[in-house]
Amino acid sequence: MATPEKNTDAVYDASTLGKPKMLVLGLQHLFAMFGATVLVPAITGLNVSTTLLFAGLGTLLFHLITGRKVPAFLGSSFAFLGAYGLVTASGQDIPLTYSCFGVAAAGLVYLVLAFFFKLFGAKKVMRYFPPIVTGPIIICIGLSLAGSAINNCQTNWWVALVAILVVVVCNIWGKGMVKIVPILLGVVASYLFAMIVDPAARANVAKTVAEAKWFGLPVIWGNTAFSIFGRDFDAGMLVTAIITIAPISLATIVEHIGDMCAISSTVGKNFVADPGLHRTLVGDGLATAIAAMFGAPANTTYGENTGVLALSKVYDPKVIRLAAVFAMVLSFCPKFAALIVAMPAATMGGVSLVLYGMISAVGVRNVVENQVDFTKSRNVLIAAMIMGLAVGVTYSGSIVIPIGSVTISLSGLAVAALVGIFMNAILPGKDYEFGANEQGDTSVDFGTLAK
Question: What global pTM score does this model have?
Fold first, then answer.
């Protein structure tokens, strides 16, 4: 990986800015991550307060593990949206608590790969996760979620269209902070429009917010992954959740590497070398595992906050940690969480339709920018099997594997990821080398809408 060029623009640190400006900059980072972070629990049914608490705690843990060097904020990962709302082969819903355990297992995959990164180096490890595998997997993540977005949009297409139009307009023509937070602005505009045109939605919001308390604990035991180990524990469902969800980490690990490269380029310091990818992966993985066990979404380094770094020219990690503390304080307000929970389904549908499509587009970008050669039969076959299995199994039902008294159900995405990795490993002609194409290596970024 090439060493980033030193940023020649005027840069500032927290010590020279003073406390008032530090507080304002911390709020700006909170504002940047806010819309995307709370949207994930709003879509999946996870708790908003728990999400904010562990976004803050995860960020502080990441900074501790990386020696407080990297100015990164960890918010909710969109890549794991497909991990929630899973069903078994018999059509039985997998509870969110089991899905959270699966996400925690995905976080532990980070630790395993961090060990290999430290032992063998990035080039050798990434040979087994080339763009011909990760790109199609990312494409399929977005496509598999699109149906749920359309279902939400159908509750009120006009409200959904407002969300879509605002996101597109702000992202294409917006300036400054408007371009940084198009998702948040799309949610706010659509939400307000729904309050004007839909009396039923207005009444629901008023009732839900009025009944919520101003102060409350952000963690609920029944929502945690620990709560599954009771009288009704289902080992088969747990194994199914782990095997189905863990492979998603392969895509988010590549995203993490891209984000570290992007932050390095923005700040002018090589964080890939110091503190090193092995440390940043451990920080991200542990933050994800701990958050998931307590009922929060997976964490990921946020491109939105990298955009704020570039905008403000303040690269001091202290400002990011201040935003993390603000998020934790806000998590103790159930009334605020109720405002998010009461969001109209069409608003969520409109925004998530753009997001899911963008996830797939990021996969296409990953393949294109790495110049994957589709004149080679091995590449065509790997991509064909990944996309065919991911879409085909998703629509026809999970693949069931009985093992003794335990029945494991594999989703299309899990089967596709496992088959893709295996085919890439055994078929001759591997030509991907991590570090040879910096643009390609940084092309997996689910925060693309913030760019």
Answer: 0.73
